[in-house]
Structure formats: structure tokens, C-alpha cells
Design brief:
Layout lengths: L2 H6 L3 H4 L4 H13 L3 H4 L7 H24 L8 H14 L2 H13 L5 H39 L9 H15 L5 H15 L1 H12 L3 H19 L1
Helix pairs in contact: 3-8, 5-6, 5-8, 5-11, 6-7, 9-10, 10-11, 11-12
């Protein structure tokens, strides 16, 4: 395998559950029905980007909880929240929360006042529970990330025609609000994190939350850095 392919694809050894810290994550995820290791594939095995994305997810859940408490009787206020949650939660491995958001996004407009009141209470409890899980997951991820960083070599950055084609595809999908951008981003997330680590965290969040205009602006900022590497 070439060094470039090591950057653009997931090495199975990177995801092998061999270390003590990884076993702790596995047990935690099994206990709470989370799909953290599967979710890591959305980030091309980049544990640092996943760790930062979970931190941002906690911030989002905090804002959603505040929104719920401030808007107890307005169903329309909850549709954008559920639409975003079904994607971001699934991407990060919080699959039960994603399923809950997807199911209620469809039904929300048809609820009677009584049904909506019940939904409101359960949603608040569900988000609070998932926020607590994410907070408990953070130190486990951080410990695993530290262990991984102490063992791995710094990869050599290579940007070739294949990378440029994938990057162009990502830009095209973002421009057309194509959901497949999540999968395309995963193919080059690891290399992008080496090129522009200051941008990748927000880019991952933007794509996962379907904030395509924001993602487009970030990709435009990264592109000159890619061009400079090619020179």
C-alpha cells in the first residue's frame, strides 16, 4: 500500500480494538447502545476529528435543550432541530437518538396538543440523557486519542490527482446540497486534517449538520492551501 493510500483510506489496524482505552470505549458503547467505532468510519478513522465533533455535539445538545425549554408550545420550532439531529446523531453513532429524531420529524405536524405536550417532555429527557452520555464519552475518547498519538508515526502528506478529484467532488456535492457529501468528506478527512487542521473541525460539523453554505465557504478557504502544496 502506498503512503498516499495510507492517508486516504482506513487502515484496519487503526480501528482494531486492542488497547485498554479502546476496550473501555467498546464496553461503554455496548452498554449505552452507541455506535462509536462505526461512526469513526465517517471520519476516515481520524480519532481527533471525531473527538472534536463529539465536543461540538455536546454544545449543540445544550442549545437544543435551551430551545426546548424556551419554546414549549410551538411545533414549528422543533422541525429544524429534528432534521439536523437525525443526521448529526447518526454520524456520531448516537443511533437511537437519530432514529427518534427521524420518526418524530415525520409525525410532528400531525400531533394533537396532548400528543405534542408528551413529545415535548420525552424529547427534553432524551436530549438530556444523550448529552450526559456524550459528556461521559469525552474522557474515554480523549484517553484513547492520547494513546494513539503516542504510538503512531506522523504520516507523510501527499496530495495527488485522486485527492484533487475527490475534493472537487466534495465541493460539487456541497454546492448542490447533496447528502452524499458526508461520505465523500470521510474519504479525505484525514488528509484535510493535515493540510488545514484549523478548518477541519468546523467543516466536519458543517457537513454533518447540513450547513452547506458554511461548508462551501470553508472549502474555499482550504483550497489555496492545497494549491500551495502542489507547487
Amino acid at each position: 500500500m502506498t503512503k498516499n493510500k495510507q492517508l486516504s483510506s482506513i487502515n484496519s489496524s487503526e480501528l482494531a480494538l486492542t488497547g485498554k482505552s479502546e476496550r473501555h470505549i467498546t464496553l461503554f458503547c455496548m452498554q449505552h447502545q452507541l455506535k462509536c467505532h462505526q461512526a469513526l468510519t465517517h471520519f476516515s478513522g481520524n480519532k481527533s476529528t471525531y473527538f472534536k465533533s463529539v465536543q461540538l455535539f455536546i454544545n449543540d445538545l445544550t442549545l437544543y435543550i435551551q430551545q426546548i425549554m424556551a419554546s414549549p408550545n410551538i411545533p414549528a420550532d422543533f422541525t429544524p432541530m429534528l432534521h439536523t439531529l437525525k443526521s448529526s446523531a447518526a454520524t456520531l453513532g448516537f443511533t437511537e437518538l437519530a432514529c427518534y429524531a427521524r420518526n418524530h420529524e415525520i409525525k410532528l405536524t400531525h400531533y394533537s396538543p396532548t400528543e405534542f405536550s408528551q413529545f415535548h417532555k420525552i424529547l427534553l429527557a432524551t436530549l438530556t440523557t444523550n448529552k450526559e452520555l456524550a459528556i461521559m464519552l469525552i474522557p474515554l475518547l480523549e484517553k484513547d486519542l492520547q494513546a494513539s498519538n503516542s504510538q503512531k508515526d506522523i504520516p507523510i502528506l501527499e496530495v495527488n490527482n485522486e485527492f484533487i478529484m475527490i475534493y472537487a467532488t466534495l465541493m460539487e456535492e456541497i454546492n448542490h446540497y447533496n447528502m452524499n457529501a458526508i461520505n465523500t468528506f470521510a474519504q479525505i478527512a484525514k488528509t484535510l486534517n493535515l493540510i488545514a487542521p484549523q478548518h477541519v473541525e468546523l467543516l466536519a460539523q458543517s457537513i454533518n449538520q447540513l450547513k452547506f453554505q458554511q461548508a462551501e465557504n470553508i472549502l474555499a478557504d482550504i483550497y489555496p492551501l492545497i494549491v500551495n502544496i502542489q507547487k
